């Protein structure tokens, strides 16, 4: 029997082509996971890789992989949204560089996470309602048992794109009055009791609400925003950024970020303030205008790949835009 917990890297050849690794280069794999991208990078050239993951189980796997590539792979437990801080000047100086040559992000959850009932991501198996990729912060159970009905409805509507979000939130609040909701199976039942099965799409009615809670619990969109901006400040001119996303909410973030960062400066007019022209220099050049989707063969062989989409860009010489909440450097 196939072990479904084995994670098959998605769009691997395409990500490698985008990063175009070179001997001696230093690359960041911001979502180490099962190490598929890191391994491929290390095999492709005599480069070095720094792997980041917020999941301690991924870091364990990283330590094992590091032994296969002595001195070339380092793994750090943390969030990729903090990667500029995690890879401080000291760490980079230890590698003899000031900047890195590539950053890969393959956002979302890994197969080992989703298929392990104890992690509480899946409505297909019963498990504690956890959904945290890392070990900090509130669990999904904390959220469903304490958030107000309107807040729950907002989370489920915006992050799950569930049209029946209000109904789901109302059912959750009614059920938790009976007893706290602690297990994935119970939450799935509550959702299924109010959301009808879609006609012909075969999607479980709990899918969208579970996705919403997972994105909320892990602040996945906030992480993505911070991670893109951190990558911008870490990449050397000519360095490449490759981001694989799995749903439209994530892809929208990546697209908007790259569109802003790759746009030409506004043509000066006597109405344009001088500062706006001076500050607006494209910090990225898109590698292709359209995103890269998986081939038919990949989508057939790996169902996880079906909704994947890669966007990639090359860092220019221009200074990084000010990071959200930070002053311009
Ligand atoms: C889709 S998997 C990556 C799979 C990897 N590319 C491979 O080939 O094995 C996503 C991984 O990113 C991690 N992750 C997601 N968001 C993160 C974040 N903000 N910071 C650090 N790790 C994150 C998850 O814990 C998970 O292990």
TrEMBL record:
It is found in: Cytoplasm. Specifically methylates the N4 position of cytidine in position 1402 (C1402) of 16S rRNA. It is an enzyme of class 2 (transferase). Its main location: cytoplasm. Keywords: Cytoplasm, Methyltransferase, rRNA processing, S-adenosyl-L-methionine, Transferase. Its EC number is 2.1.1.199. This is Ribosomal RNA small subunit methyltransferase H. Residues 290-301 have a biased composition (Basic and acidic residues). It catalyses: cytidine(1402) in 16S rRNA + S-adenosyl-L-methionine = N(4)-methylcytidine(1402) in 16S rRNA + S-adenosyl-L-homocysteine + H(+). Residues 286-329 are annotated as: Disordered. Belongs to the methyltransferase superfamily. RsmH family.
């Amino acid at each position: 029997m196939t072990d479904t917990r084995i994670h098959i890297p998605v769009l691997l050849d395409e990500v490698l082509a985008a990063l175009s690794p070179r001997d001696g280069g230093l690359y960041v794999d911001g979502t180490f996971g099962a190490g598929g991208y890191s391994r491929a990078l290390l095999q492709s050239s005599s480069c070095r890789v720094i792997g980041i993951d917020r999941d301690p189980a991924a870091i364990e796997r990283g330590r094992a992989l590091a032994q296969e590539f002595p001195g070339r792979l380092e793994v750090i437990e943390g969030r990729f949204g903090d990667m500029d801080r995690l890879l401080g000047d000291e760490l980079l100086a230890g590698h003899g560089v000031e900047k890195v040559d590539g950053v890969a992000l393959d956002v979302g959850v890994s197969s080992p996470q989703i298929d392990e009932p104890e992690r509480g991501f899946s409505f297909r198996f019963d498990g504690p309602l956890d959904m945290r990729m890392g070990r900090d912060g509130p669990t999904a159970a904390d959220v469903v048992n304490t958030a107000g009905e309107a807040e729950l409805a907002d989370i489920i509507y915006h992050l799950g794109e569930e049209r029946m979000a209000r109904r789901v939130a109302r059912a959750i609040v009614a059920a938790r009055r009976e007893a706290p909701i602690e297990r994935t199976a119970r939450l799935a039942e509550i959702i299924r009791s109010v959301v009808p099965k879609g006609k012909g799409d075969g999607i479980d009615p709990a899918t969208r609400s579970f996705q919403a809670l997972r994105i909320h619990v892990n602040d996945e969109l906030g992480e993505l925003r911070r991670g893109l901006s951190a990558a911008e400040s870490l990449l050397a001119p000519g360095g490449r950024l490759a981001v694989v996303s799995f749903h439209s909410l994530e892809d929208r973030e990546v697209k908007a970020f790259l569109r802003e960062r790759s746009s030409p400066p506004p043509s000066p007019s006597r109405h344009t303030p001088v500062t706006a022209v001076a500050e607006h220099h494209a910090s990225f050049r898109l590698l292709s205008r359209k995103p890269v989707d998986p081939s038919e063969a990949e989508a057939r062989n790996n169902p996880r790949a079906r909704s994947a989409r890669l966007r990639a860009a090359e860092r220019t010489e221009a200074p990084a835009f000010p990071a959200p909440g930070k002053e311009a450097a």
